[in-house]
Amino acid sequence: MSSYIYNLGLHFDRIASVYQSNTAIQFSDGSNLSYRELNDLSDGIAVFLRSKGIKKGDVCAIAGVKRSLSYAALIGCLKIGAVYSFFDPESPLERLSKILRQSSPKIILAYLDEVVEDLNLLSYPVINLNSFEKLDEPNSITKTSLHDVEGSSPAYIMFTSGSTGFPKGAVMTHANVINFIHWSRETFNITTEDIHTNVNPLYFDNSVFDVYASLFNGATLVPINKKEALHPKKLLEIIEEQKCTTWFSVPSMLIYLQTSRAIIPEKWRFMKKIIFGGEGYPKARLVQLFNTLHPNTSFYNVYGPTECTCICSSYAIGKEDFEDLNGFLPLGKMASNFSWKILDESGKETSEKGDLALGGPNVGLGYYNDQERTSERFFQNPGHNNYKDIFYRTGDLVSFNETDGKIYIHGRTDNQVKHMGYRIELEEIESAINQFSYVQDTAAFVVGESNNNKIFAVFESDQQVDILMMKAELMRYLPSYMMPHEIIAIDRIPKNSNGKTDRLELTKKFSQWQKS
To answer: Which domains does the chain show, CATH number per domain?
Structure first.
């Protein structure tokens, strides 16, 4: 790539011109989009957005439906400098309203036949992408306008759970993502021959790797929708028929396929790379998968928060990692262009276990329209006060082993948990339950390992409560992956000496309740 490629619109336009006849997106129904066709569609979307008054810096909300114009809309936004933000098409309207109030989109783009809620109830213009399925004549965006977007401009907002009960939107720039694209190509040796699975939802952080590591490197992307992903037999057919070479997901997805006996070497014979991250993969389970597909397939454990452009470390797995089957794999070494620190509770560097802080070109701008929570996590490197050097406190409790030069993760320093691969703040669940007038106090906690855990909630009330009705009401505020597995009324929620909820005590008590 030439040195003038400083924004993602230019980057994709160049990729599409070099590989225009190559397949960009390969759908499981047999329909394909070439790079030229995808580029034309994105140009059409860009011109349409301009006609609606969308300009650089404006936010466009896109329903996370894996169809052609969803991907074209992403690229179209990048070309005019608009900031895109995917949302869950099955998200409850109450939670979606919170996300949209935070991001204030100028427009919503959606395949309305695949969105559960009525988006017209919201106070934002809604464009039905079904009417754009066939663009008769592509409208080419001028090359001049592609140069109008700076590398420091926001590219997308990715929303995650928030500890205040309000989702928070991490903002990544064009420069952040371009750096990530180059790193992913070099780290995983991505070529135009690669065919990537897109099993991750578009509104989920892991999809950043799926989309940018493939479409912005000249490879092919295979979208896999939710129904296909949850049907092992159908998923196997797609992997084999589409000759997929690269897989990326949370470990729990692979464990689900293992449990379903869907990891059959003949069906995965084209797979060259299996990449996983977002939660721990028990080595006792991973070794079974490794022995089934190795040596034809390489395995990578990756790590990275949403706020740092998806991935910042990669660890290539070998046979020696299974000499001891206890625990989890290390994070390995950080990407060469990342800097990192381990901080104690006061924010000073420590050689002991502590909070991992990350710096470098993949650290984003903070949380959209939320300076308070940005200042809690993003900070100026105190050793470099003469120039801007922003670090992000991940909240991951880690240690560094000087002997092997690897970073090991030990849990969290806060109440964030990983469930089904999603980052969830337990306080957001508690906030939703506390909205009910009959609830005096509530607490959420998890039982089990992150790849196979369950969320539970307890509450105090002076009334008789219909739990089934309570759950039905709660579904208005929480997406399915955040819904507690069980909700229990108790006399008193245990507190520690600081007056805070004692979640450890709750976990112990829950085990006793289960046995009784």
So the answer is: 8-322 (3.40.50.12780), 339-412 (2.30.38.10), 418-515 (3.30.300.30)
- Kindly state the tokens that stand for 433: 């339950």
Token pair in block for residue 26: 């390969």
User: What is d(CA 276, CA 301) in angstroms, rounded to the nearest whole number?
Assistant: 5
The dihedral over CA atoms of 244, 250, 256, 261, expressed in degrees to the nearest 10, equals 30
Give dist(CA 152, CA 150) in Å, integer: 5
Angle at 122 between CA 118 and CA 124, to 5 degrees: 120
Q: What distance, in Å, lies between the first and last C-alpha atoms of the chain?
A: 65
SS (H, E, C) 73-98: HHHHHHHHCCEEEEECCCCCHHHHHH
How far is residue 435's CA from residue 157's CA, in Å, rounded to a whole number?
27
For 228-262, the pLDDT digits (tens) are 998 999 999 999 999 999 999 998 899 899 989 99
Q: Over the stretch 19-65, which tens digit does the pLDDT of each residue have?
A: 999 999 999 998 999 999 999 999 999 999 999 999 999 999 999 99
Phi, psi of 24 (to 5 degrees): -90, -50
Report the alpha-carbon distance of residue 366 to residue 371 in Å, rounded.
8
Q: Bridge partners of 342?
A: 356
Alpha-helix runs per DSSP H in 242-278: 251-259
Q: Give the residue ranges of DSSP H helices in 52-173.
A: 68-80, 93-103, 143-146
In order, the DSSP letters of 361-398 are: TT---EETT-HHHHHHHEEE-TT-TTS--EEEEEEEEE
The helix or strand, by DSSP H or E, that contains position 237, with its residue range, turns out to be: helix 232-241
Is the peptide bond prior to 295 cis by the omega test (within 30 degrees of 0)?
yes
Beta strand pairing call for 339-343 and 354-359: antiparallel
Distance between CA 227 and CA 199 in Å, rounded? 10
